[in-house]
Structure prediction request, 77 residues.
Amino acid sequence: METRKRILVVDDDVDVITVLKAILTKEGYDVISAVNKAEGLVKLRNEHPDLAILDVMMTTQYEGFDMAREMLSNPEF
Prediction:
C-alpha cells in the first residue's frame, strides 16, 4: 500500500487554500494548511509534510521568505 504524499499550504487567503486543497486532494495528496508563518511552522513540526507551498506576502511583506529561510536553516525540516 502506497503512502500518500503530504503537502503543507501556507497562505493567508482562505480561498487560495480551498482551491489548492481541492486540486491537490483530487490528485491524490493529503493537504495540510496554515494561514501564517507561526501556524505553518507548528504544522511543519507536527505533520512532517513532503512539500510546502508558501505564500510570500502574508502578515508581513516577506513572511513567506522568512519561513522558507527558517525551513532551510533548520536540519529538523
